[in-house]
Amino acid sequence: MPEQSAPKRRRIQRSPSPEYKLDDEASYEPYVPVAQRRQAKFAKLTSRGTEKAKATAGQEEQDEREDEEREEERRREKARKERTLLMEAQEVHERKAAEDSKKTDAEKTEEADAEILAAIASRKKLASDLELAQGVQYTEPFKTSWRPPKFVRERSPEEHQRLREKHHILVDGEDIPPPIDNFTDMKVPEVLVKFLKSKRITTPTPIQLQGIPTAFAGRDMIGIAFTGSGKTLAFCLPLIMFALEEEAKLPFVRGEGPVGIILCPSRELATQTYENVLTWTAALAPDGGGKYPQLNTLLCIGGISMSEQSHVLNKGLHIVVATPGRLIDMLEKKRFTFDNCRYLCMDEADRMIDLGFEDDVRNIMSFFKRQRQTLLFSATMPRKIQDFAQLSLVKPILVNVGRAGAANLDVLQVVEYVKQEAKMVYLLECLQKTPPPVIVFSENKNEVDDIQEYLLLKGIEAVAIHGSKSQEERQYAIKSFKSGQKDVMVASSVASKGLDFNDIQHVIIFSMPKEIEDYVHQIGRTGRSGKTGIATTFVNMNTAEQTLLDLKYLLMEAGQKVPPFLQSIEDPRAVQGGSLKGCPVCGGLGHGISNCPKLEDTQRRQMASHRMSDDRGGY
Length: 619
Ligand SMILES: Nc1ncnc2c1ncn2[C@@H]1O[C@H](COP(=O)(O)OP(=O)(O)OP(=O)(O)O)[C@@H](O)[C@H]1O
Known about the structure:
Elements: H1 6-13, H2 34-102, H3 105-121, H4 129-134, H5 150-153, H6 157-166, E1 169-172, H7 190-198, H8 206-216, E2 221-225, H9 231-249, E3 260-263, H10 267-284, E4 297-300, H11 310-313, E5 319-322, H12 324-332, E6 343-346, H13 349-352, H14 358-365, E7 373-378, H15 383-392, E8 397-401, E9 411-417, H16 423-431, E10 438-441, H17 445-457, E11 462-465, H18 471-482, E12 488-491, E13 506-509, H19 516-523, E14 533-539, H20 545-557, H21 564-567, H22 572-576, H23 601-617
Parallel strand pairs: 2-7, 2-8, 3-5, 3-6, 4-5, 6-7, 9-14, 10-12, 10-13, 11-12, 13-14
Antiparallel strand pairs: 1-8
Helix pairs in contact: 8-9, 9-10, 12-14
The structure holds adenosine-5'-triphosphate (ATP).
Domain DEAD-box RNA helicase Q: 181-209
Keywords: ATP-binding, Helicase, Hydrolase, Metal-binding, Nucleotide-binding, RNA-binding, Zinc, Zinc-finger
Domain Helicase ATP-binding: 212-399
């Protein structure tokens, strides 16, 4: 067969173009149509892409495998650690259980108490959030122009102490101003001294004789004294004097002021304090026979129309007496400012800084633009609230007349066992003990209404007051009772704090409050300003044993008769051999902190959340 070579055939088959030479043969490329070339290029690109994709996929797979291995390793490591932590926790738990089993009940209770106390101690201090955030801390007390008279300044510290001891005044703090037992020596304007005399206020009460010089000197203070002992004058008078001084320097015009603010936990108490301030400032003004400028005072409480006081708001403002909610509202609406406010007093301060109002108080403080003088007053001020408050004051002075939370010794306390169903009938009998006016307290709004209805049916002129009554109804009840139109006022605890009714003869506590502090405030509506009064309290099987124990200790402390059924109640702490110290949270003498009725579960939770937010905020 003849040898046929393909190239030859190719050459015959296809004639080269004239430009092609033979030696170009090696570089010869057959013609490929454009469409085919494009297709080929596309195929090549695709195959290259696939290869690259394959390579990437391979790499990813490897990375994934490595990641998984690392993750697995991490999991193993975590599991190892967790096992260790778990085991450690288990061991700690077992160790603690073993230790606890060796502890007495009393020791366990003390430990629990310490934990709760630590939670309270870690509460955010009482200052405005701005001050806290900016770390603003005032270290020196306010400076005022007031000086004690020379002869008082020349008395020795021992002489001051003797005067305090004579009046059972306990003080604590640095550079304590001297006690002064005479209004004139305190440099109270003569016209006011005369006016006070006309109201049978001739000599200062113990809280006044130490408290007024302390406040006049510009010092922050915590004033604790029993119910009806004249605390209102002790914190209002200094503010009145400061306001007079400011007004004399440069008269206030519209939009200026106030110089100071008095905060109260209830509308009724604020109204009463406002009325006192009005009387005292009127006595100082030319119309009242004085030679001092007229001061303008604003009552700032919920439930009333502020437009009625527009005549005050249209002038310079010196003093504001307020409840927290309405005050915050007015400040937010810029109806007045605290730009020049320098005095903040809280009446019934333990309630104000108690869990309910704490944030409101902080909010109010945030409106102050400069250092203020802060004063806290109450008849009850448990140790822990005192400690907490002290952190928030500048070199505070503690003025304490008697034990904080002790009952007024001018009140004869009678505790009677009365079955639930016999209470109403027995109430009628009790009302015969003294002439009117009488206050009947109940813990329950419905019960207040029931008692009033029953008394009205029996022909007794009775009014009722509780939180669900309208502001008008509350005002009417107080007004008609104060004026003597009505003989009996039936009230929930709203009327117990700080209200000063004339010469209440008898307080009947129809249902014993859970918190002994409330009891102290309730019986304190009688036996005021040195007069004596009676308090009759109904207890029965519905009264918690711990409350009865608090009551028993309080009666013992006040030297009152302890009825046999109370005597027979044993203190479980004594049985366990634990400490019999009073509760630092509510001041009750019959229980420790862990059984405190004031520290209900929700409150404990609240404190825990305070602690957590404090940890976060670093305050
Ligand atoms: N120095 C005084 N001498 C006689 N009476 C006074 C004196 N100071 C105040 N009072 C009168 O004592 C009564 C009780 O005063 P106030 O309401 O200030 O007591 P309180 O200590 O605030 O009581 P509470 O703790 O119940 O609020 C008032 O009627 C007041 O006029």
